Amino acid sequence: MKIQKDQILGCNKSExxxxxxxxxxxxxxxxxxxxxxxxxxxxxxxFQVAIPSWALGAGGTRFGRFSFFGEPSSLEQKIExxxxxxxxxxxxxxxxxxxPWDIPSDYNAIKEQANILNIKFDAVNSxxxxxxxxxxxxxxxxxxxxTSKAVREQAIQHNLEVIKIxxxxxxxxxxxxxxxxxxxxxxxxxxxAFQNTQDSLIDIYxxxxxxxxxxxxxxxxxxxxxSTVIQDWGASLMLANGCGDKAYTLVDLGHxxxxxxxxxxxxxxxxxxxxxxFHFNDSKYGDDDLTVGSIKPYALFLIFNELVYGMxxxxxNPDLAWMIDASHNVKDPLEDLIQSLEAxxxxxxxxxxxxxxxxxxxxxxxxxxxxxxxxxxAYRTDVRPxxxxxxxxxxxxxxxxxxxxxxxxxxxxxxxxxxxxxxxGL
Length: 426
Ligand code: AOS
Ligand code: ZN
Ligand code: ZN
Description:
By secondary structure, the protein is of the alpha/beta class. It has 16 helices and 13 strands. Helix content is about 50%, strand content about 10%.
């Protein structure tokens, strides 16, 4: 499955007149306000988000999984799907693999395929939350934090193996997310579990190539429901600091207790040069992994506002690894990812419209009302014509979703792969 350039051009034809009208109106208005529309368009075009291999099939819950037709069942097919997303949106320029779900059988072939599609291998994810076939030790009571040295050693070796696999593909980061924790008070000694985790991470860190990063993801609960070893950004930051300069905190939007001020967390981590990666999704209750921007788009914008500020003012913080971490049951996964990518670009574009000089002046005057007006003025702008234009300039679709449907991509995938496919992964 590959979308040809002229198929996209064909679909753009019916949208171009409308687009031009909306874009001219908006860019005229923004230029008058003193914005540099061209540089905003370049920034939008440069902003690339990695797609995780496990988001391309239907997700599931512990109550069941309803598969979606024409899902990818091999790594090649997953990359093919990301290729489709990338040609339409021009924003999905990366893939994030999960080992062992995505071990390549032929490294050169997979690299060449990704290269042709202009997709780079982003952070690789290790998996010590499931027991693997023929594994000697079990992760039932934890992996890097386990009281058994043999279990910890197995988990460390797995992470080192993941680094090796990623290295062969050109990845530059390892993401560590642990399910480690406890379900009942008294089950674990918090201090021992934390110390074991730190020591294990240091052992993994020693195997990190010089130009790699280690991203430590936190999460307050699930699958353990009393305590999680790396429960919050504080725990993650302590562990990263305990490892060294190449270790960073990774923020996943769904991994916070209700009403946490996530924008403040990302802001301070950037100030300290310790924000390494970011997982996008949305949620109403917990780690719901819903489509980005589907529940709390204003919160997403406020987070982007801090990210934009940090990217402009915190050279001490490295470039971030951006990834969509969403997965669910009810939508065509590719349509869902198109919606997520759109929501990300939309929040980013709005954040780029915040006039930082004016905001600073209003802050210094303690003009609280003006501060809010500036922030909300940017948020209320309909920036979609900017997104359309950025895509158009890079050869993408004015409307990725309409084009996806007009070209009947899902229908073609079903023809190629069959109806009752099951994706590998969760
Ligand atoms: C789990 O809740 C985390 O969000 C992980 O980043 C990720 O979803 C997991 O590693 C996928 O299997
Ligand atoms: Zn995540
Ligand atoms: Zn999660």
